[in-house]
Protein backbone atom coordinates (compact mmCIF):
# COMPACT_ATOMS: atom_id res chain seq x y z
CA UNK A 1 0.00 0.00 0.00
CA UNK A 2 1.50 3.32 -1.04
CA UNK A 3 1.47 6.63 0.84
CA UNK A 4 -1.60 7.97 -0.96
CA UNK A 5 -3.66 4.93 -0.01
CA UNK A 6 -2.43 5.14 3.57
CA UNK A 7 -3.34 8.82 3.59
CA UNK A 8 -6.86 8.07 2.38
CA UNK A 9 -7.29 5.34 4.99
CA UNK A 10 -6.02 7.73 7.68
CA UNK A 11 -8.50 10.41 6.65
CA UNK A 12 -11.34 7.90 6.67
CA UNK A 13 -10.32 6.80 10.17
CA UNK A 14 -10.29 10.41 11.36
CA UNK A 15 -13.71 11.10 9.79
CA UNK A 16 -15.17 7.99 11.41
CA UNK A 17 -14.23 9.33 14.86
CA UNK A 18 -14.61 13.09 14.46
CA UNK A 19 -15.02 13.99 18.13
CA UNK A 20 -12.14 11.81 19.31
CA UNK A 21 -9.88 13.04 16.51
CA UNK A 22 -10.76 16.67 17.27
CA UNK A 23 -9.93 16.27 20.95
CA UNK A 24 -6.69 14.50 20.04
CA UNK A 25 -5.66 17.29 17.68
CA UNK A 26 -6.53 19.91 20.30
CA UNK A 27 -3.28 19.26 22.15
CA UNK A 28 -1.27 19.78 18.95
CA UNK A 29 -3.31 22.88 18.04
CA UNK A 30 -2.70 24.46 21.44
CA UNK A 31 0.98 23.47 21.38
CA UNK A 32 1.70 24.87 17.91
CA UNK A 33 -0.27 28.06 18.61
CA UNK A 34 1.52 28.54 21.93
CA UNK A 35 4.96 28.10 20.34
CA UNK A 36 4.19 30.63 17.60
CA UNK A 37 2.74 33.16 20.05
CA UNK A 38 5.62 32.84 22.52
CA UNK A 39 8.28 33.11 19.83
CA UNK A 40 6.50 36.09 18.24
CA UNK A 41 6.39 37.88 21.60
CA UNK A 42 10.10 37.24 22.21
CA UNK A 43 11.15 38.21 18.69
CA UNK A 44 8.87 41.24 18.84
CA UNK A 45 10.62 42.43 21.99
CA UNK A 46 14.02 41.82 20.37
CA UNK A 47 13.04 43.73 17.22
CA UNK A 48 11.62 46.62 19.23
CA UNK A 49 14.82 46.95 21.26
CA UNK A 50 16.95 46.74 18.10
CA UNK A 51 14.86 49.40 16.37
CA UNK A 52 15.02 51.70 19.39
CA UNK A 53 18.80 51.37 19.71
CA UNK A 54 19.19 51.84 15.96
CA UNK A 55 17.02 54.96 16.15
CA UNK A 56 19.60 56.49 18.49
CA UNK A 57 21.97 56.59 15.54
CA UNK A 58 24.05 54.32 13.35
CA UNK A 59 27.76 53.71 14.09
CA UNK A 60 27.33 55.71 17.27
CA UNK A 61 29.62 56.06 20.27
CA UNK A 62 28.49 58.02 23.31
CA UNK A 63 30.96 59.74 25.61
CA UNK A 64 29.63 60.49 29.11
CA UNK A 65 31.08 62.51 31.96
CA UNK A 66 32.23 60.36 34.85
CA UNK A 67 33.79 56.91 35.08
CA UNK A 68 30.58 55.09 36.07
CA UNK A 69 27.90 53.62 33.86
CA UNK A 70 25.59 56.64 34.02
CA UNK A 71 25.91 59.76 31.93
CA UNK A 72 26.93 62.04 34.83
CA UNK A 73 27.93 60.07 37.88
CA UNK A 74 31.60 59.16 38.24
CA UNK A 75 33.50 56.87 40.56
CA UNK A 76 33.89 59.53 43.22
CA UNK A 77 30.65 61.48 42.82
CA UNK A 78 29.01 63.81 40.32
CA UNK A 79 31.58 65.12 37.83
CA UNK A 80 31.23 67.24 34.71
CA UNK A 81 34.48 67.02 32.83
CA UNK A 82 33.55 67.17 29.13
CA UNK A 83 33.69 70.43 27.24
CA UNK A 84 32.94 71.79 23.78
CA UNK A 85 36.69 71.85 23.20
CA UNK A 86 36.78 68.08 23.84
CA UNK A 87 34.09 67.64 21.20
CA UNK A 88 36.04 69.74 18.71
CA UNK A 89 39.19 67.68 19.38
CA UNK A 90 37.29 64.42 18.86
CA UNK A 91 35.93 65.75 15.56
CA UNK A 92 39.53 65.96 14.25
CA UNK A 93 40.18 62.23 14.82
CA UNK A 94 40.40 59.83 11.89
CA UNK A 95 37.25 57.91 10.91
CA UNK A 96 34.94 60.35 12.73
CA UNK A 97 32.12 61.72 10.57
CA UNK A 98 29.95 63.68 13.07
CA UNK A 99 30.31 64.91 16.63
CA UNK A 100 27.37 66.28 18.64
CA UNK A 101 27.79 67.58 22.21
CA UNK A 102 24.67 67.64 24.41
CA UNK A 103 23.64 69.42 27.60
CA UNK A 104 20.07 69.24 28.85
CA UNK A 105 18.08 70.85 31.64
CA UNK A 106 14.51 70.81 32.84
CA UNK A 107 12.28 73.42 31.28
CA UNK A 108 9.01 75.11 32.09
CA UNK A 109 7.62 76.35 28.78
CA UNK A 110 4.84 78.89 28.36
CA UNK A 111 2.99 80.30 25.38
CA UNK A 112 0.09 82.67 25.80
CA UNK A 113 -1.84 81.11 28.73
CA UNK A 114 -0.52 77.56 28.17
CA UNK A 115 2.23 76.02 30.34
CA UNK A 116 4.09 72.76 29.81
CA UNK A 117 6.97 71.03 31.61
CA UNK A 118 9.55 69.50 29.30
CA UNK A 119 13.30 69.15 28.74
CA UNK A 120 15.53 71.69 27.00
CA UNK A 121 18.27 69.81 25.16
CA UNK A 122 21.25 71.83 24.01
CA UNK A 123 22.71 70.33 20.86
CA UNK A 124 24.05 71.13 17.37
CA UNK A 125 22.59 70.83 13.83
CA UNK A 126 24.52 67.58 13.24
CA UNK A 127 22.03 65.88 15.57
CA UNK A 128 19.63 65.53 12.63
CA UNK A 129 22.21 63.54 10.63
CA UNK A 130 23.21 61.27 13.50
CA UNK A 131 19.66 60.48 14.64
CA UNK A 132 18.19 60.50 11.12
CA UNK A 133 15.46 62.88 12.23
CA UNK A 134 13.44 65.20 10.05
CA UNK A 135 11.73 68.55 10.54
CA UNK A 136 8.01 68.66 9.76
CA UNK A 137 7.64 72.47 10.00
CA UNK A 138 10.23 75.21 9.59
CA UNK A 139 13.90 74.25 9.91
CA UNK A 140 16.56 73.31 12.44
CA UNK A 141 18.85 75.98 13.86
CA UNK A 142 22.23 76.60 12.21
CA UNK A 143 25.91 76.66 13.15
CA UNK A 144 25.65 80.44 13.28
CA UNK A 145 23.08 80.06 16.04
CA UNK A 146 25.61 77.92 17.95
CA UNK A 147 28.31 80.56 17.54
CA UNK A 148 26.01 83.38 18.59
CA UNK A 149 24.18 81.47 21.35
CA UNK A 150 20.94 82.46 19.66
CA UNK A 151 17.59 82.33 21.45
CA UNK A 152 15.96 79.94 19.00
CA UNK A 153 14.25 76.60 19.58
CA UNK A 154 13.05 73.55 17.69
CA UNK A 155 10.20 71.85 19.52
CA UNK A 156 9.03 68.25 19.56
CA UNK A 157 5.56 67.20 18.45
CA UNK A 158 4.29 66.63 22.02
CA UNK A 159 5.37 70.12 23.09
CA UNK A 160 3.69 71.63 20.03
CA UNK A 161 0.41 69.81 20.73
CA UNK A 162 0.30 70.95 24.36
CA UNK A 163 1.28 74.59 23.79
CA UNK A 164 -0.41 75.51 20.55
CA UNK A 165 -3.96 75.13 19.22
CA UNK A 166 -4.63 72.26 16.81
CA UNK A 167 -3.70 73.19 13.26
CA UNK A 168 -1.71 76.25 14.34
CA UNK A 169 1.79 76.68 12.84
CA UNK A 170 4.10 77.55 15.76
CA UNK A 171 7.05 78.55 13.55
CA UNK A 172 7.88 82.19 14.26
CA UNK A 173 6.05 82.23 17.61
CA UNK A 174 7.78 83.35 20.79
CA UNK A 175 7.76 80.95 23.73
CA UNK A 176 9.30 81.34 27.17
CA UNK A 177 11.62 78.62 28.49
CA UNK A 178 12.37 79.15 32.17
CA UNK A 179 11.20 82.77 31.65
CA UNK A 180 13.64 83.35 28.75
CA UNK A 181 12.14 84.30 25.37
CA UNK A 182 12.88 81.94 22.46
CA UNK A 183 11.71 82.03 18.86
CA UNK A 184 10.37 78.74 17.49
CA UNK A 185 12.15 78.03 14.19
CA UNK A 186 10.96 74.45 13.61
CA UNK A 187 8.92 71.45 14.72
CA UNK A 188 10.41 67.96 14.54
CA UNK A 189 8.52 65.07 12.99
CA UNK A 190 7.13 62.61 15.53
CA UNK A 191 9.64 59.98 16.76
CA UNK A 192 7.66 58.04 19.39
CA UNK A 193 9.01 56.48 22.57
CA UNK A 194 12.71 55.88 23.25
CA UNK A 195 14.26 52.61 24.48
CA UNK A 196 13.78 53.55 28.13
CA UNK A 197 10.15 54.49 27.46
CA UNK A 198 10.44 58.28 27.56
CA UNK A 199 8.63 60.39 24.96
CA UNK A 200 11.19 61.55 22.37
CA UNK A 201 8.73 64.21 21.16
CA UNK A 202 8.53 65.87 24.56
CA UNK A 203 11.82 67.77 24.10
CA UNK A 204 12.83 71.28 23.08
CA UNK A 205 16.11 71.55 21.16
CA UNK A 206 18.15 74.73 21.47
CA UNK A 207 21.78 75.59 20.63
CA UNK A 208 24.13 73.95 23.14
CA UNK A 209 25.95 77.25 23.64
CA UNK A 210 22.64 78.90 24.60
CA UNK A 211 22.02 76.30 27.31
CA UNK A 212 25.57 76.76 28.60
CA UNK A 213 25.73 80.56 28.66
CA UNK A 214 22.16 81.79 29.05
CA UNK A 215 20.25 79.02 30.79
CA UNK A 216 22.71 77.21 33.09
CA UNK A 217 25.82 79.39 33.26
CA UNK A 218 28.29 76.50 32.84
CA UNK A 219 31.10 75.61 30.47
CA UNK A 220 30.71 71.82 30.32
CA UNK A 221 28.57 69.34 28.37
CA UNK A 222 27.26 66.06 29.72
CA UNK A 223 27.36 63.91 26.59
CA UNK A 224 29.29 63.84 23.32
CA UNK A 225 27.76 61.75 20.53
CA UNK A 226 30.32 60.48 18.03
CA UNK A 227 29.35 58.95 14.69
CA UNK A 228 32.05 56.90 13.02
CA UNK A 229 32.58 56.64 9.28
CA UNK A 230 31.91 52.87 9.27
CA UNK A 231 30.73 50.25 11.71
CA UNK A 232 34.07 48.44 11.47
CA UNK A 233 35.90 51.56 12.66
CA UNK A 234 33.98 51.89 15.93
CA UNK A 235 36.52 49.99 18.04
CA UNK A 236 39.40 52.01 16.59
CA UNK A 237 37.61 55.33 17.14
CA UNK A 238 36.63 54.34 20.69
CA UNK A 239 40.27 53.61 21.52
CA UNK A 240 41.36 56.90 19.91
CA UNK A 241 38.79 58.88 21.94
CA UNK A 242 39.93 57.26 25.19
CA UNK A 243 43.57 58.06 24.43
CA UNK A 244 42.76 61.63 23.39
CA UNK A 245 40.63 62.44 26.44
CA UNK A 246 43.16 60.95 28.85
CA UNK A 247 45.77 63.27 27.36
CA UNK A 248 43.47 66.32 27.41
CA UNK A 249 42.32 65.64 30.98
CA UNK A 250 45.88 64.87 32.12
CA UNK A 251 45.05 61.35 33.29
CA UNK A 252 48.12 59.16 33.47
CA UNK A 253 49.14 55.75 34.71
CA UNK A 254 46.50 53.80 36.61
CA UNK A 255 44.34 56.81 37.40
CA UNK A 256 40.62 56.31 36.78
CA UNK A 257 39.15 57.96 33.68
CA UNK A 258 36.76 60.84 34.34
CA UNK A 259 34.73 59.88 31.28
CA UNK A 260 32.98 56.81 29.93
CA UNK A 261 32.78 55.77 26.27
CA UNK A 262 29.83 53.53 25.44
CA UNK A 263 29.53 51.54 22.22
CA UNK A 264 25.87 51.16 21.21
CA UNK A 265 26.73 48.10 19.11
CA UNK A 266 27.78 46.31 22.31
CA UNK A 267 24.58 47.45 23.99
CA UNK A 268 22.57 46.07 21.05
CA UNK A 269 24.40 42.73 21.14
CA UNK A 270 23.80 42.40 24.88
CA UNK A 271 20.10 43.25 24.45
CA UNK A 272 19.72 40.73 21.62
CA UNK A 273 21.40 38.03 23.71
CA UNK A 274 19.02 38.71 26.58
CA UNK A 275 15.90 38.67 24.40
CA UNK A 276 17.20 35.56 22.63
CA UNK A 277 17.39 33.71 25.94
CA UNK A 278 13.91 34.97 26.83
CA UNK A 279 12.52 33.78 23.47
CA UNK A 280 14.11 30.36 23.92
CA UNK A 281 12.67 30.07 27.42
CA UNK A 282 9.18 31.04 26.25
CA UNK A 283 9.34 28.62 23.31
CA UNK A 284 10.56 25.81 25.60
CA UNK A 285 7.66 26.34 27.99
CA UNK A 286 5.21 26.36 25.08
CA UNK A 287 6.80 23.22 23.60
CA UNK A 288 5.77 21.29 26.72
CA UNK A 289 2.16 21.51 25.54
CA UNK A 290 3.25 19.93 22.24
CA UNK A 291 4.74 17.01 24.16
CA UNK A 292 1.48 16.64 26.06
CA UNK A 293 -0.35 16.63 22.74
CA UNK A 294 2.01 13.94 21.45
CA UNK A 295 1.30 11.76 24.47
CA UNK A 296 -2.40 12.21 23.75
CA UNK A 297 -1.85 11.02 20.18
CA UNK A 298 0.01 7.93 21.38
CA UNK A 299 -2.81 7.16 23.78
CA UNK A 300 -5.50 7.48 21.12
CA UNK A 301 -3.50 5.46 18.58
CA UNK A 302 -3.10 2.64 21.11
CA UNK A 303 -6.85 2.69 21.66
CA UNK A 304 -7.36 2.68 17.89
CA UNK A 305 -5.08 -0.36 17.51
CA UNK A 306 -7.09 -2.22 20.15
CA UNK A 307 -10.41 -1.29 18.55
CA UNK A 308 -9.26 -2.31 15.07
CA UNK A 309 -7.48 -5.53 16.00
CA UNK A 310 -9.82 -7.73 13.95
CA UNK A 311 -9.49 -5.32 11.00
CA UNK A 312 -5.70 -5.63 11.24
CA UNK A 313 -5.94 -9.43 11.37
CA UNK A 314 -8.24 -9.46 8.35
CA UNK A 315 -5.90 -7.28 6.33
CA UNK A 316 -2.93 -9.44 7.23
CA UNK A 317 -4.91 -12.54 6.23
CA UNK A 318 -5.48 -11.13 2.73
CA UNK A 319 -1.82 -10.28 2.20
CA UNK A 320 -1.01 -7.02 4.01
CA UNK A 321 2.59 -7.00 5.27
CA UNK A 322 3.84 -5.72 8.62
CA UNK A 323 5.23 -2.61 6.91
CA UNK A 324 1.80 -1.93 5.34
CA UNK A 325 0.11 -2.05 8.74
CA UNK A 326 2.86 -0.03 10.43
CA UNK A 327 2.81 2.65 7.74
CA UNK A 328 -0.99 2.88 7.88
CA UNK A 329 -1.04 3.75 11.59
CA UNK A 330 2.06 5.91 11.37
CA UNK A 331 0.55 7.96 8.55
CA UNK A 332 -2.65 8.30 10.57
CA UNK A 333 -0.70 9.75 13.49
CA UNK A 334 1.15 12.12 11.13
CA UNK A 335 -2.09 13.27 9.54
CA UNK A 336 -3.53 14.08 12.96
CA UNK A 337 -0.43 16.16 13.74
CA UNK A 338 -0.34 17.85 10.34
CA UNK A 339 -4.00 18.88 10.45
CA UNK A 340 -3.61 19.99 14.05
CA UNK A 341 -0.42 21.85 13.11
CA UNK A 342 -2.12 23.78 10.29
CA UNK A 343 -5.00 24.81 12.53
CA UNK A 344 -2.46 25.67 15.26
CA UNK A 345 -0.51 27.93 12.87
CA UNK A 346 -3.66 29.85 11.96
CA UNK A 347 -4.64 30.09 15.62
CA UNK A 348 -1.14 31.21 16.63
CA UNK A 349 -0.93 33.96 14.00
CA UNK A 350 -4.37 35.29 14.93
CA UNK A 351 -3.58 34.99 18.63
CA UNK A 352 -0.30 36.92 18.26
CA UNK A 353 -2.08 39.76 16.44
CA UNK A 354 -4.83 39.88 19.08
CA UNK A 355 -2.25 40.02 21.88
CA UNK A 356 -0.43 42.84 20.08
CA UNK A 357 -3.61 44.88 19.68
CA UNK A 358 -5.10 44.23 23.12
CA UNK A 359 -1.99 44.43 25.31
CA UNK A 360 0.12 46.76 23.18
CA UNK A 361 3.02 44.29 23.16
CA UNK A 362 5.12 44.17 20.05
CA UNK A 363 4.86 40.78 18.31
CA UNK A 364 6.86 39.71 15.26
CA UNK A 365 5.91 36.54 13.38
CA UNK A 366 8.62 35.01 11.21
CA UNK A 367 8.53 32.11 8.79
CA UNK A 368 11.19 30.37 10.87
CA UNK A 369 8.87 30.23 13.91
CA UNK A 370 6.08 28.75 11.76
CA UNK A 371 8.40 26.16 10.20
CA UNK A 372 9.88 25.32 13.60
CA UNK A 373 6.52 24.68 15.23
CA UNK A 374 5.25 22.76 12.18
CA UNK A 375 8.36 20.59 12.01
CA UNK A 376 8.18 19.96 15.72
CA UNK A 377 4.54 18.87 15.50
CA UNK A 378 5.34 16.43 12.65
CA UNK A 379 8.28 15.07 14.64
CA UNK A 380 5.96 14.61 17.62
CA UNK A 381 3.54 12.66 15.42
CA UNK A 382 6.27 10.40 14.07
CA UNK A 383 7.80 9.81 17.50
CA UNK A 384 4.62 9.12 19.44
CA UNK A 385 2.90 7.36 16.54
CA UNK A 386 5.68 4.86 15.93
CA UNK A 387 5.09 2.65 18.96
CA UNK A 388 1.34 2.13 18.35
CA UNK A 389 2.11 1.53 14.65
CA UNK A 390 4.79 -1.02 15.54
CA UNK A 391 2.44 -2.70 18.00
CA UNK A 392 -0.24 -2.97 15.30
CA UNK A 393 2.25 -4.42 12.80
CA UNK A 394 3.43 -7.01 15.34
CA UNK A 395 0.01 -8.57 15.95
CA UNK A 396 -0.43 -12.26 15.21
CA UNK A 397 -3.01 -12.51 12.40
CA UNK A 398 -4.68 -15.60 13.93
CA UNK A 399 -4.97 -13.99 17.36
CA UNK A 400 -6.16 -10.74 15.78
CA UNK A 401 -8.94 -12.50 13.85
CA UNK A 402 -10.20 -14.18 17.05
CA UNK A 403 -10.13 -10.90 18.99
CA UNK A 404 -13.46 -9.72 20.37
CA UNK A 405 -14.11 -6.26 21.80
UniProtKB/TrEMBL annotation:
The chain crosses the membrane at residues 23-42, 280-305, 333-355, 361-387. InterPro entries: ABC3_permease_C, MacB_PCD, Macrolide_Exporter_MacB. Keywords: Cell membrane, Membrane, Transmembrane, Transmembrane helix. Residues 21-243 form the MacB-like periplasmic core domain. It is a multi-pass membrane protein. GO terms for cellular component: plasma membrane. Its main location: membrane. GO terms for molecular function: transmembrane transporter activity. It is found in: Cell membrane. The keyword Cell membrane applies. Signal peptide: none annotated. Residues 284-397 form the ABC3 transporter permease C-terminal domain. Belongs to the ABC-4 integral membrane protein family. This is Macrolide export ATP-binding/permease protein MacB. It comes from Desulfofarcimen acetoxidans (strain ATCC 49208 / DSM 771 / KCTC 5769 / VKM B-1644 / 5575).
Amino acid sequence: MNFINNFEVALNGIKANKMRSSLTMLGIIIGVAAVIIMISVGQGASKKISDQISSMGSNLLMVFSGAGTGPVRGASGNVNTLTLEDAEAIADLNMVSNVVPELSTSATVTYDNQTWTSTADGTTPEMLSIKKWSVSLGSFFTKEDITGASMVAVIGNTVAENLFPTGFNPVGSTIRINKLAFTVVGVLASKGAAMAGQDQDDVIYVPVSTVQKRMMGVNYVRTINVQTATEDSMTYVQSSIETLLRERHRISGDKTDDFNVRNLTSVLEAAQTTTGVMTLLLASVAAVSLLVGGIGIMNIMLVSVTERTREIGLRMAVGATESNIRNQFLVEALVLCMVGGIIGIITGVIGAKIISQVSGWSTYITMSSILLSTGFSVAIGAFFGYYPAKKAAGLDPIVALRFEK
